[in-house]
Amino acid sequence: MSEKDCIFCRIIRGEQPADFTHRGERIVAFKDIRPSAPVHILIVPRKHIRSINDLAGEDESLIAEMILLAPDLAREAGIASSGYKLLFNVEKGGGQFVFHLHLHLFGGWQRK
């Protein structure tokens, strides 16, 4: 899939609506339109990288920035102290449906 056709690239370019929780120079974050948890945020690099399998050495700081943004987003969503989960799905067999690298932040479950 080309950047032109990529849904996340269209969101980043403002061609597709999204509920943004963060807009940074290299990374954006927005709420998943089909959430799998009470809080489900996607952390997405502006740079189109197809999958974890397509990372290059030059992307090391980008991945670190994505992960380091997660606690801030969790605090803003009110789930930092109760706990949350981070997940990269990799390729179809690993559950990846959108082929633009993204990190899922899940949380907000009420545990008994």
Describe the structure concisely for a colleague.
With 112 residues, this protein is α+β, with helices and mostly antiparallel strands.
Unreliable spans are none
Distance between the ends: 43 Å
Apparent shape: globular
CATH T-level fold name: HIT family, subunit A
Major β-sheet profile: 5 strands, antiparallel
Structure commentary:
The chain is α+β, with helices and mostly antiparallel strands and 112 residues long. The chain has one domain (7-107): 2-Layer Sandwich (HIT family, subunit A), CATH 3.30.428.10. The protein has 2 helices and 5 strands. It has helices spanning 7-12, 60-76; strands at 20-23, 27-31, 39-45, 84-87, 103-107. It has a 5-stranded antiparallel sheet, covered by helices on one side. Strand 2 and strand 3 form a beta hairpin. The chain starts with 6 loop residues before the first helix and ends in a 5-residue tail after the last strand.
Helix-strand layout with pairing:
Blueprint: H1 7-12, E1 20-23, E2 27-31, E3 39-45, H2 60-76, E4 84-87, E5 103-107
Question: Which tags fit this structure?
Answer:
2 helices, alpha+beta, HIT family, subunit A, single chain, 112 residues, 5 strands, globular, 21% helix
